[in-house]
Amino acid sequence: MQTKSIKQYLEYLKLSGIQDIFVKPKLSIDKTELLQELEKKYQSCTKCALHSGRNKFCYGNGNADARLMIISEGPGADEDRIGKVFVGRSDQLLTKMLSAINLSRDEVYISNIVKCRPPNNRNPLPEEKRACLPYLEEQISIIQPEFILMLGKVAAVTLLEIDQTLKAFREHTYLYKGITTFVSYHPSALLRNPNWKKFAWIDLQKLQKDYFG
Ligand code: SF4
């Protein structure tokens, strides 16, 4: 409605005896737009030492309305070069793993514990994880997924705050911030050790069962 016609309509209501109009605030948000704005806002972050070796900030990518959010450890060399979470062979394997349980990449959102690459692919340090975690927590609270799949021990130890082996993590499902959470292998670990793929398949089937309920 044009401004002029809104004014005319309000005038008409006033003449009809209606003095007060309550306008319901717009509650729906465009999650994609919001995440894009936040990505821009944080892309020059210098909150921890990892910023000094950063080529590209890897915030996260995928469907902002995803029912499943996948969380990994941090960007590798290719991700750092391109600025996207999961690229190359790990990305291809992840796509295949999702497709095996009837999910497409377009349906999920993928992010990392730290958004800048740790040098030589070392594990992120406690202070780096602490500095970066609020960005991931904010992403989770915007996306509000029904399920989380944590890939690799670092992601699981950091978020679930339990120090145990990946094998032990995989034996259970968890509630992280009230969200049903699964833990499995990182695709790069599966590329190094193809024998573990059969175990990853068991994890994915558990997720599939709950997801499609
Ligand atoms: Fe900032 Fe996170 Fe990058 Fe550290 S890893 S500089 S906290 S965006």
Helices and strands, with pairings:
Elements: H1 3-15, H2 31-42, E1 61-62, E2 68-72, H3 77-82, H4 88-100, E3 108-112, H5 126-143, E4 147-151, H6 153-160, H7 166-170, E5 174-176, E6 179-184, H8 187-192, H9 197-212
Parallel strand pairs: 2-3, 2-4, 4-6
Antiparallel strand pairs: 1-3, 5-6
Helix pairs in contact: 2-5
The protein binds iron/sulfur cluster.
Provide a descriptive summary of the structure in words.
With 213 residues, the chain is α/β, with parallel strands linked by helices. It has helices spanning 3-15, 31-42, 77-82, 88-100, 126-143, 153-160, 166-170, 187-192, 197-212; strands at residues 61-62, 68-72, 108-112, 147-151, 174-176, 179-184. It has one domain (3-211): Uracil-DNA glycosylase-like domain (Uracil-DNA Glycosylase, subunit E), CATH 3.40.470. It contains nine helices and six strands, in the order H-H-E-E-H-H-E-H-E-H-H-E-E-H-H. Helix 2 (31-42) runs antiparallel to helix 5. The structure holds iron/sulfur cluster (SF4). Residues 42, 45-48, 50-51, 114-116, 128, 131-132 line the site of iron/sulfur cluster.
State the helicity in percent bands.
40-55%
- Shape descriptor reads globular
Record field, number of beta strands: 6
Largest sheet: 6 strands, mixed
CATH homology group = Uracil-DNA glycosylase-like domain
Report how far apart the termini are: 44 Å
Number of discrete helical segments = 9
User: Which sequence of strands runs across the widest sheet?
Assistant: 1-3-2-4-6-5
Q: What ligands are attached or bound here?
A: iron/sulfur cluster
Second-tier CATH architecture: 3-Layer(aba) Sandwich
